[in-house]
Specification:
42% of the residues lie in helices and 29% in strands. The protein has helices at residues 2-28, 81-130, 136-182, 228-233, 273-276, 289-292; strands at 36-51, 56-61, 68-69, 74-78, 185-187, 192-197, 204-205, 210-227, 239-244, 247-259, 264-265, 279-286, 304-310.
Length: 326
C-alpha cells in the first residue's frame, strides 16, 4: 500500500507540474493587440548555385562547406587543356591569315604595276598603229595583255578581302574560345557562405552540373502564411518582428516585401492540422541588410521562429516587441 500511495502521489505531482506549466505558459504568452498577426516560419537565405556552363572534369575546388567567400573569388576550376589547345590553334590561324594578307597586298602592288605597264604599252602601240608602224596583231596582243593585267589586279584585290575576312574570323574564334576559357574558372557571383560542396576534383560533370551552393547572407528572410483577413489588410513595406526559437530573448526587425497573389494551403510544418487546412497567403518578411551585415557570423538558415506582422499601420508595437539585438 505504501508503494501504491507513493506512486499515486508521484503521478499527482507530475500532473500538477504539467498543469502549472501550462497555466504559466498561458499567462505569459504574449497576447497581441488589435492590428497584429502571428505566424510561424523558418529563417531562409537566397541560395545561389555555382554550376558549369560547359561539361568537363573538375580540376580543383578551392572552398569548403561553411567557408565565407567574397564576390568574384575563384571557387573552382575545370580542366581546360583541350580548350587551351584550341585557343593556341586559333591564334596560329590568325597569324597565318595576317601573313596571307601581307602577301596579298604585295601581289596587289605587283598586279597594279603590271596593269600600268600593259596600259602604257597599249597606248604606245595604238599610236604606232595609227602611223603604220605596228601591225594589227601586235595591237590585239597589247589589248589582251591589258585585259589580263586588269583581271589579275581584281583577283589580287579579292585575295586581300579574303585575307582580311580570314583574320576577322580567326580573331572572333579566338575571342570566343577565350571567353569560354574564362568560364572554366568558376567564381562566386556574390558574397556568401558555402552551404554545400557538391563536386570533388576528378569528377566529370555535364553542362549545368552544380559544384557549390552559396547562401547570400545579405538576403535573409522568413516565409510565413497569413489568413485571408490579415493578408488582405497587409501592405508592402509593413513592419514585422521575428523571434527565433533558438534565441527568444532577441527581437529581430523585418519588413514585408512580398505577398502572394493567390491563396494556398499552409505547408505541413506550420502550426496544427487545423491551421494547415485553412487557405492562407504566403508573405515574405525580409530582414534589413544593415542588420544582417553585423551578424553574418551567426546567421543560420532553417532556424524556426515566430513572426509578428503589423497588419494595421496605426497599431502601436507593444513593449515586449521592441527591437532587441545582441
Amino acid at each position: 500500500m505504501n508503494s501504491r500511495a507513493i506512486l499515486i502521489a508521484g503521478v499527482g505531482v507530475i500532473a500538477l507540474a504539467i498543469g502549472g506549466g501550462f497555466f504559466w505558459w498561458q499567462q505569459h504568452r504574449t497576447e497581441l493587440p488589435e492590428g497584429f498577426s502571428r505566424a510561424n516560419g523558418r529563417i531562409e537565405a537566397k541560395r545561389v548555385d555555382v554550376a558549369l556552363k560547359f561539361g568537363g572534369r573538375i580540376a580543383e575546388v578551392l572552398v569548403e562547406e561553411g567557408q565565407m567567400v567574397a564576390a568574384g573569388a575563384v571557387v573552382a576550376r575545370i580542366d581546360a587543356t583541350e580548350l587551351e589547345a584550341q585557343v593556341r590553334a586559333a591564334e596560329a590561324a590568325t597569324r597565318q591569315a595576317v601573313q596571307e594578307l601581307a602577301q596579298a597586298k604585295a601581289l596587289f602592288a605587283q598586279r597594279e604595276g603590271e596593269l600600268a605597264l600593259a596600259k602604257s604599252e597599249l597606248k604606245r602601240t595604238e599610236l604606232l598603229s595609227k602611223r603604220g608602224f605596228a601591225t594589227g596583231e601586235t595591237l590585239d596582243r597589247r589589248r589582251s595583255q591589258e585585259i589580263t593585267a586588269a583581271a589579275a589586279l581584281n583577283t589580287a584585290r579579292a585575295q586581300i578581302v579574303s585575307a582580311q575576312a580570314a583574320i576577322e574570323a580567326s580573331e572572333a574564334q579566338t575571342a570566343a574560345l577565350k571567353a569560354n576559357l574564362a568560364d572554366y574558372t568558376l567564381i562566386a557571383p556574390r558574397s556568401g557562405r558555402v552551404q554545400y560542396r557538391l563536386a570533388e576534383p576528378g569528377e566529370i560533370l555535364a553542362a549545368g552540373g552544380k559544384v557549390i551552393t552559396l547562401l547570400d547572407l545579405t538576403d535573409v528572410y522568413m516565409d510565413v502564411y497569413l489568413p485571408t483577413d490579415d493578408a488582405g489588410r497587409l501592405r508592402f513595406g509593413a513592419e514585422a518582428r521575428l523571434i527565433l526559437d533558438a534565441a527568444p530573448q532577441y527581437v529581430i526587425p523585418a519588413t514585408v516585401n512580398f505577398i502572394a497573389s493567390e491563396a494556398q494551403f499552409t505547408p505541413k510544418y506550420v502550426e496544427t492540422k487545423s491551421e494547415r487546412e485553412k487557405l492562407t497567403f504566403r508573405v515574405k518578411l525580409q530582414i534589413p541588410a544593415e542588420v544582417l551585415s553585423k551578424y553574418q557570423d551567426v546567421v543560420k538558415t532553417g532556424v524556426p521562429g515566430t513572426a509578428i506582422v503589423r497588419v494595421s499601420p496605426e497599431a502601436e508595437w507593444p513593449s515586449t516587441l521592441v527591437v532587441k539585438l545582441p
